[in-house]
Amino acid sequence: MAEQLTITPGPAGTPGEADSTPWLHGQLRSIARRWWLLLLGVLLGLLLGSVYLRRADYTYSAELKVYAAPSSSGSRPASALGGLAALAGIGGGTSEAVSPFRFYLDGIYSTEVAARMARDRKLMRTLFAAEWDAQAQAWRQPASLSASLRRGITGLFGLPQFGWHAPDAGRMQAYIADNVTIRQSVKTPIATLAFDNADPGFAVRFLNQLHTTTDAYLREQQTARTRGNIDYLAQKLREVTLAEQRQALVTTLTEQERQAMLAYGNAPYAAEPFDIATASLEPTRPRALPLLIGTGVAGLILGIVAALWLGRRRGTAPDPIRTPVTDNG
């Protein structure tokens, strides 16, 4: 009896056969056979990234470092009488005061500061240039495909739609909240105001104007407050006859006069710049090299997916499998 081998087709990659191909090796070979798809994907990604970089609006980052103004620490001397604060209506009955610098950091996003910034017509026309019609000298709603799509989607789902309104103090407050960031370090008393814009010179001017507007607003608040306290204390001083109370009133009145003097001065009241505002020498967004690397990698992945998909659609020829055949002749 003689035994010979004959070759019959069998399913590809049958486990246990010596010449079978593992699944991973098959995928790698499928990718290698279509290497041009990977190259095409990388080139396509780099091309799209280059087109985006040519059409993108580059922005520069401006920063202004500030710290608490030494002329206004926010402290008050302890009164000779524990109830003097209640008598004079100053400080709510406690000798602890909040530093004006803390009010400054919160005041940057306040409604009043935004309203004062919005009074600058040149500033508003620069920030919202797309909505200003120079010929008509009036604000107009800009035509926008994204806005039309958004209105269509909100209307389709029955969501509330908010109409356009000309830039005002509310728009300015929202703009400051969205574009101005404050970074504080736990190690140093310095806070950094940051603002990005396509014009580095304008970014620097905007931060300086925001700083001076906020500081001036707090100065006016403090001036009005101390002037009212001084008038009240002077009136009480004419009415009080007890020597101990009069001495406490005089001490508090002296402190209020000092606060008024500091508020009336030309030096920064709440915050003082640590250095002049500066803008980056080069655009900070978008960053060309990381963007091109990202688009190239995305194109490479797309090419790999396309190679695997084409290999799966076309299939592979079945691998031959050797099966023993017995010759009974």
Structure notes:
The protein is of the alpha+beta class and 329 residues long. 52% of the residues lie in helices and 14% in strands. The protein is built from eleven helices and nine strands. Strands 2, 5, 6, 7 and 8 form a five-stranded antiparallel sheet that branches. A hairpin with a 6-residue loop joins strand 5 and strand 6. The longest helix has 40 residues. The chain is elongated. It starts with a strand and ends with a strand. About 12% of the residues have low confidence.
Low-confidence stretches: 12-20, 74-96, 316-323
Largest β-sheet summary: 5 strands, antiparallel
Structural class: alpha+beta
Mean pLDDT: 78
Q: Strand-residue fraction?
A: 5-15%
Q: So what's the CATH class of the largest domain?
A: Alpha Beta
Strand/helix succession: EHHEHHHHEEHHEEHHEEHE
Q: Please name the CATH topology of the largest domain.
A: Bacterial polysaccharide co-polymerase-like
- The CATH architecture of the largest domain: 2-Layer Sandwich
Question: How much helix, percentage-wise, in residues?
Answer: 40-55%
Rg, rounded, reads 37 Å
